From TrEMBL:
Signal peptide: none
Family classification: Belongs to the aldehyde dehydrogenase family.
SUPFAM superfamilies, A to Z: ALDH-like
Annotated protein name in UniProt: Aldehyde dehydrogenase family protein
Enzyme superclass (EC): oxidoreductase
Residues in Aldehyde dehydrogenase domain copies: 15-479
EC number: 1.2.1.-
Catalytic center residues: E252
Keywords: Oxidoreductase
Organism expressing this protein natively: Geobacillus thermodenitrificans
InterPro entries referenced in this protein's UniProt entry, alphabetically: Ald_DH/histidinol_DH, Ald_DH_C, Ald_DH_CS_GLU, Ald_DH_N, Aldehyde_DH_dom
Pfam families: Aldedh
MF terms in GO: oxidoreductase activity
Amino acid sequence: MRIKQHYPLFINGQYVESSNGEVFETINPATEEVIATVAKATKEDVDHAVEAARAAFESGKWPKMTAAKRGRLLNQIANLMRERFDDFVYAEVLNSGKTVDAAKGQILQAIEDFEFYAAAAITLQGDTNQVPNGFFNYTVKEPVGVCGQIIPWNYPLMMAAWKVAPALAAGCTVVLKPASYTPITAYMLAEICQEAGVPDGVVNVITGSGSEIGPYMIEHPGIDKVAFTGETETGKDIMRRASGTLKRVTLELGGKSPNIVFDDCDIEAAVNGSLYGIFYNTGQSCEARSRLFVHEAIYDEFMEKFLEKASRIRVGNPFEKGVHMGAVISRSHQQVIDSYVKLAVEEGGEVLYGGKIPEGEEFEKGYWYMPTVIGNVKNDMRVAQEEIFGPVVVVMKFRDEEEVIQQANETIFGLGSAVWTKDHGRAHRVASRIRAGIVMVNSPISAFPGTPFGGYKQSGFGRELALETLNLYTETKSVVSYIGSKPLNLFGI
Ligand code: NAP
Ligand code: MG
């Protein structure tokens, strides 16, 4: 067994069962088999985790440790993750249904995130500021405190790393809640943090129903900051609830990212990049480029190549070599995806490829969906406006730059976007006008440790993965000191 059969909660450096003993099953979405049971946290367990994180913070053990030493421990976490790379890949594929290649890339990135923030920890510095004679002012960056971090199922370990690594680097303590579908790698990470020498209580992991314990976490007075990645609607609920205690909030939410293919692009590169941009991770990516805009002059040529390559995408056992798309996360998600395809047809769209659950013996168990391409779409249709979060791309034809920029921006979201063109001026002109946190120019990928990742508009706010993320885990303290030789007597009494 490369994973455990049961995962209790991880609180204060120890595995503990939930206070009422309840557990839930976690499954392999490619086979529907139960792979482990997991403790289901209660509100009481949330209290314990928050108390542990608070005590670890107040004791000063972690926040007052030198940044250099915290950095060394983050490097040690990365080293241990590298040693267990294959186990992480195995657990992630088993629990999420994603392919081995996708899991490898994401786990490598999670490791590099820890390495990036290990190096970045020591860059957190204050300033001295110009103040009137007789005064002296300096600022200190202090950790914000206890962080409640709630993450989704699409990139389980990577999302954990995006949140835990900068929080630890800044000196914060953490209560991490992974998604109920994909809890395993978060627990593996917690064990490694402890093994690396991170003090007890600094990293706590709890699992349980987001709709039951999530709101309790968000409203908890013992938590100073909430960092959330997930659906836009959940993000809105979180923001409302966080207002009661004025928590610091960062939100990484949904998207409906435009992928713009100009007639002067390298068609081969644009076809490959557009294909990867939507079908990578079985389309379950926040930055999935799910609205494909193709210039009318190359539409036929582009679509012929795009559809031909879409037909060569292999769906199947995610552990098998050569498979491009694994399972989707759950039966209910598979049904949501399928209902969007039916809606597209009702709205006047045309299924150009896929549009159904694949057939055959290997698909009898598990949750599958074919790579799906829908043409004859207008940007105001629901399938062009709502996040499907599956392997479904809608295609639209455009005439000129102005028109496509306008349509690209006609969405409540603003997370990713992509531009395919050989015209350098056009690439950056369009990039400057797209209202989104990320623009990919002739690139199918968008995220490396160090590149800010996050949204405009209803895709959220705050940036992850970057140096500036550290600031979101700190408060600035301004220390003003009087250094004059005569006592001040401002009342003159
Ligand atoms: P979700 O349904 O919003 O759930 C995300 C997390 O929130 C889970 O841990 C969930 O717990 C918990 N949760 C559910 N209801 C809650 C509540 N009322 N209060 C607090 N927490 C609550 O999102 P998902 O379906 O897991 O993930 C897909 C979404 O994530 C997509 O919209 C995608 O675009 C977005 N995403 C965004 C980014 C980005 O960087 N912008 C990256 C990746 C994914 P349970 O699992 O127990 O329900
Ligand atoms: Mg959800």
